[in-house]
Amino acid sequence: DDPEKLAAFQARIDAGEKIEPKDWMPEGYRKTLIRQIGQHAHSEIVGQLPEGNWITRAPTLERKQILLAKVQDEAGHGLYLYCAAETLGVSRDELTEMLLSGKMKYSSIFSYPTLTWADMGAVGWLVDGAAIMNQVPLQRTSFGPYSRAMIRICKEESFHQRQGYDIMMKMASGTPEQKRMAQDALNRFWYPSLMMFGPSDKDSVHSSQSMAWKIKMNTNDELRQKFVDQTVPQAEYLGLTVPDPDLKWNDETGHYDFSEPDWTEFFEVLSGNGPCSAERLEARNKAWDDGAWVREGMLAHAEKKRALKTA
Ligand code: FAQ
């Protein structure tokens, strides 16, 4: 890239201007955004599966309606994000193919199973909680279409988080068996939720360039710390125990000290060896294959209408 153009581009970013799809941008900026927005979109789409697992078994009609609406919101988030990525010159079909063939990633959290109803509480509380912690700063990200998508997505995510916490409240104040289920869900989702923020800063290959371009607004460790600080009092309020014997308030730093997740497990999940990784990709491939007749039908219909117009 031309150094003068690069400097002018960086000056726009530094001045807090939004970059729009038709503006000049360095190839690296475009590629990084396609990677990050694409992975984010895939996460929303694959993220429907762990909760979709419980729609048919929700304990009441009201809980079922709420969960159904939440999962539909996630599909909607995926669609806005694919649209934002398309403005960068990649098609939704190309992105989908990269997900289905395992070439593109989706968030590690969705490779974990949802074993009980309490997991619906833990996913809403912790997974949406972590998602918001990461996405609120992204409302100020430098790429216009991404930042605008984040504004609406964050509104919906905060509602999702509250519905998850509400399930946890109900379970944690219920029978001893319900409380045990809530604790078990927290035990299984705590460390995978911490992993959502990405590897520790020293292993985060993209952070420094992405932060200079304001594609990312904070480092992975900064956001992880904020999440722990926010979530520990919420666990205490529920009367549940965070599964970390080393978790301790540190008066000097004004933050909690906590144990790092098992990074070997994280990198295993990233390489496609998570507990449900194969199942998730199979489900997405099946949905894509089962929908082929709809796509073919729509194309044939569009073709017929076009032919009629030109006749
Ligand atoms: N999972 O250099 P960094 C949701 C990869 S929220 C998988 O630090 P970066 C809502 C990373 O891609 C979840 N891969 O990377 C919901 C890179 O590999 P690559 C989605 C991960 O990009 C809630 C490598 O590790 N949110 O879905 C993960 O600067 C409930 C090196 O890492 C977003 O995507 C991970 N956890 O920072 C839905 C937010 N972490 O690509 C349903 C936007 C790292 O070179 C139910 N994304 N990797 O092959 C971001 O903010 C960033 O991409 C990070 C990672 C912070 C995730």
UniProtKB/TrEMBL annotation:
<keyword id="KW-0560">Oxidoreductase</keyword>
<dbReference type="InterPro" id="IPR011881">
    <property type="entry name" value="PaaA"/>
</dbReference>
<protein>
    <submittedName>
        <fullName>1,2-phenylacetyl-CoA epoxidase subunit A</fullName>
        <ecNumber>1.14.13.149</ecNumber>
    </submittedName>
</protein>
<dbReference type="InterPro" id="IPR007814">
    <property type="entry name" value="PaaA_PaaC"/>
</dbReference>
<dbReference type="Pfam" id="PF05138">
    <property type="entry name" value="PaaA_PaaC"/>
</dbReference>
<dbReference type="GO" id="GO:0010124">
    <property type="term" value="P:phenylacetate catabolic process"/>
</dbReference>
<dbReference type="InterPro" id="IPR012347">
    <property type="entry name" value="Ferritin-like"/>
</dbReference>
<dbReference type="GO" id="GO:0005829">
    <property type="term" value="C:cytosol"/>
</dbReference>
<dbReference type="InterPro" id="IPR052703">
    <property type="entry name" value="Aromatic_CoA_ox/epox"/>
</dbReference>
<dbReference type="InterPro" id="IPR009078">
    <property type="entry name" value="Ferritin-like_SF"/>
</dbReference>
<dbReference type="GO" id="GO:0097266">
    <property type="term" value="F:phenylacetyl-CoA 1,2-epoxidase activity"/>
</dbReference>
